Amino acid sequence: MRSIHEAPAEAGAGRTRPAFRWWLAALPLAVLAACGGGSSTGPSEQDLAAQGRQIFRFDTFGDEAKWTGQLRMHEVISQAVDPATALAVGLKVDAEALPPAVAQGIRDGTIDLTDPRTTVALLKLDAVVGLKGTVETVDGQDRLTKVGTTCALCHSTVDDSFAPGIGKRLDGWANRDLNPGAIIALSPALPAATRAVFNSWGPGKYDPRFNLDGQSKPLVIPPAYGLQDIHRITFTGDGEDIAYWNRYVGVTQMGGLGTFTEPRLNLSVTNGTVDLVTSKLPALQAYQLSLLPPPAPAGSFDVAAAARGKAVFEGPGRCATCHTGAKFTDANERLHPAADSMAEPEIPSYASRTATKQYRTSPLRGVWQHAPYFHDGSAATLQDVGQRYNSRLALGLSAQQVADLAQYLKSL
Ligand code: HEC
Ligand code: HEC
């Protein structure tokens, strides 16, 4: 076995390996194709969205101050996080960022996926989705000197087309395999009690307020697609546009340099003395608005049952009283008291920790794609969702109607 960083001389018996020239070359830049946005976007909006894609995937807003300066994640990664471990905590590898020789080496097992130096090599290629490493050559050796995170960490996954965890990027799809708590808990800078909280969250979940209010009730990581025309952002509708929340996460969670202020929470956070966030928000928002919810795969639901389920949704299920219109949400008209969430009552109540103290009716386009459901992930399947509403609201639906409802939800 050899690592990516090693000379290829001893590679596979009898085969000549291409010299790993790529290694010496500059980092490959992701190719910016025209953005696959909605048909209504004009050329300049498309440019903005293309810039936003670059930001979404690769911009850290200077959050290395947190991930490197405070949490010292660069040390842990260099010493202990080999690619196998990285994949096990849900990190994804962008197959399109791998030069052919590396892709071949991973395929034939000649690149060592149990060596942390391979992780550093992948970071140097910008191939680890959502992590941005700075790799410098010190005494002829590659060293990871800085690491930061990007939006893609939680809101992109890959299609597994190359291998499990390795494939083409799917931006906007929540990474439900990612265990952000377990990753942060690797930091040598945290006290044991804090690490224990982070380790309790599990895959696909993150509490974006724990570091501010000290309470722990993680949310499922939601998709960042399908938000066009929706003017209440987050589970609790805290912001009227995506940029509100992007600023919140960019500054208060990722640790980007800039300011977030929220009078409703009596909160003001400023990191650093420069602002690396504000100027990027318009492009970042344009990109997210271009991300459409993925259509249900052909054959993934029963068409006849879905048609019956639609009638349940609009009739005896009473779903369409809140899940209204083309996006299946009344978010632009109103928010709902905490009791309208089938995940409440919970301790602590997530809504009580937010600016609105209420919940937004979740949009349902693409809902087939992102189980588990409700803000806390307490419904494993769409069948469970229907069953929960049926019993909690005493809707009196038959088992058949609940099953049909699930087929309809799978079709949206
Ligand atoms: C560590 C994981 C993590 C990172 C990194 C992250 N987010 Fe999120 N994001 C979340 C979670 C968890 C929520 C749910 C928060 C809520 O609803 O209260 C969320 C919510 C959102 C939403 C709201 C979705 C909706 O349905 O209204 C958008 C949009 C979003 N994030 C975009 C971004 C962008 C853009 C970035 C980079 C600036 C980013 N996120 C970074 C975890 C993350
Ligand atoms: C009173 C308003 C209201 C009614 C009626 C209602 N919902 Fe909801 N729905 C919500 C709210 C609010 C949420 C967000 C709850 C949460 O995440 O805790 C939600 C969440 C959901 C989700 C989870 C989406 C996700 O991204 O996790 C599904 C699926 C859903 N509802 C389906 C239904 C179905 C099916 C019905 C009818 C049986 C229904 N809803 C009736 C308000 C409503």
Automatic annotation (TrEMBL):
Family annotation (Pfam families): RoxA-like_Cyt-c
Limits of the Cytochrome c domain: 304-412
TM segment ranges: none
Gene Ontology molecular function: cytochrome-c peroxidase activity; electron transfer activity; heme binding; metal ion binding
Keyword list, A-Z: Heme, Iron, Metal-binding
Protein name from the UniProt record: C-type cytochrome
Keyword Ribosomal protein: no
Superkingdom assignment: Bacteria
Cross-referenced Gene3D superfamilies: Cytochrome c-like domain
